[in-house]
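To illustrate the input format used throughout this study, we show a single complete record. The first block contains the structure-token representation of the backbone; no residue identities are included at this stage. The design step must infer an amino acid for every position from geometry alone.
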């Protein structure tokens, strides 16, 4: 009886062991299946996201290859949209060249080859490719387009940043512009005011206290409804750009300010800066600040986008202000800028310091 009982116990242990091994195997198989499904899905999505672009380029190559009387070598003259980064333009160019090869289009870099000019234009809704060449005495043009929503987003290899904002000065009087004084650790601002049809330059310390006020006696300065101006301090010397006038003075001897007539900017163009670029403190990327809107009755949203990206993309860093933005000016370091805006709730004019910082 004992041997039979021992055999029964041994058989039960083996059965339990086999069940545990089966569970482990099934669990591992399930995890493997999930990984394969996710991985294959990622591959499928990536391949599918490339399909609209490749299909568009294929259509263009089809239409070029079908041009009557087109023979001999062609020299590609590629004109990508200026909004594209170098990497995105190169990706489209590589795809074009692959399709031309598949369609047996003879491409050459020789100057004697017939030019095949291809333009890429990005509209708010489409990417439009236009190919132009000449056959005999006639021009041949072929056009294809693809919705932008069907194209994959552009991947930019930039470190994530966030935008920090600090209110550093405000006034009930209209602030035309503000600039850093560029005097090292002492800090401070040069602020340009428009008060009772007069222009005043203020020297403001790092605590926001006015240390000096200079009235610029500008002769023949005509009143305007929407004045814009720029102030640029260089040590003790200051240059002020107004509408139709320019002034130079010194904080040391402000009574000797000299102003002279200057050609006013064209209609619709302000004298203040719109090309301020911030340098990322996290990598070598430069971030451009979008041009503010023109509606004085609504708040503005400034957009910072890295080189090669477009506004509204995944890399876009927006910053909303309580009113219209009036000027943007570089700060003391390359990662910051000064923004003048009007607060529609209080009616005051405000100066903000915006700064790029690392991290989301």
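Output of the design step:
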């Amino acid at each position: 009886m004992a041997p039979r009982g021992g055999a029964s116990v041994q058989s039960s242990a083996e059965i339990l062991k086999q069940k545990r091994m089966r569970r482990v195997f099934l669990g591992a198989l399930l995890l493997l299946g999930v990984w394969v499904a996710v991985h294959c899905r990622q591959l499928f999505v990536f391949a599918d996201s490339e399909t609209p672009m490749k299909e568009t380029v294929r259509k263009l190559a089809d239409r070029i290859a079908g041009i009557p009387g087109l023979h001999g070598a062609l020299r590609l003259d590629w004109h990508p949209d200026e909004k594209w980064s170098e990497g995105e333009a190169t990706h489209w160019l590589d795809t074009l060249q692959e399709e031309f090869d598949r369609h047996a289009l003879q491409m050459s870099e020789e100057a004697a080859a017939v030019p095949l000019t291809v333009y890429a234009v990005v509209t708010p809704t489409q990417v439009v490719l236009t190919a132009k060449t000449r056959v005999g005495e006639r021009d041949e043009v072929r056009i294809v387009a693809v919705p932008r929503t069907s194209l994959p987003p552009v991947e930019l290899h930039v470190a994530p940043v966030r935008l920090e904002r600090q209110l550093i000065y405000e006034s009930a009087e209209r602030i035309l512009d503000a600039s850093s004084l560029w005097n090292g650790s002492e800090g401070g601002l040069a602020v340009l005011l428009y008060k009772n049809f007069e222009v005043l330059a203020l020297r403001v310390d790092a605590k926001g206290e006015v240390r000096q006020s200079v009235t610029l006696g500008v002769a023949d300065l005509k009143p305007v409804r929407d004045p814009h101006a720029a102030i640029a301090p260089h040590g003790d010397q200051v240059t002020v750009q107004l509408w139709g006038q320019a002034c130079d003075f010194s904080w040391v001897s402000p009574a000797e300010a000299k102003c002279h007539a200057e050609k006013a900017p064209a209609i619709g163009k302000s004298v203040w800066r719109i090309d301020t670029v911030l340098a990322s403190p996290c990598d070598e990327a430069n971030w451009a600040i979008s041009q503010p809107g023109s509606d004085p009755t609504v708040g503005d949203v400034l957009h910072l986008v890295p080189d090669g990206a477009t506004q509204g993309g995944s890399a876009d860093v927006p910053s909303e202000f309580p009113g219209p933005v009036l000027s943007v000016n570089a700060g003391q370091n390359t990662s910051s800028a000064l923004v003048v805006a009007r607060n529609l709730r209080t009616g005051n004019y405000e100066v903000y310091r915006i700064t790029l910082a690392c991290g989301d």
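Structural context for interpreting the output: Residues 18 and 249 are 93 Å apart (CA to CA). Residues 51-150 form a domain with the Double Stranded RNA Binding Domain fold (CATH 3.30.160).
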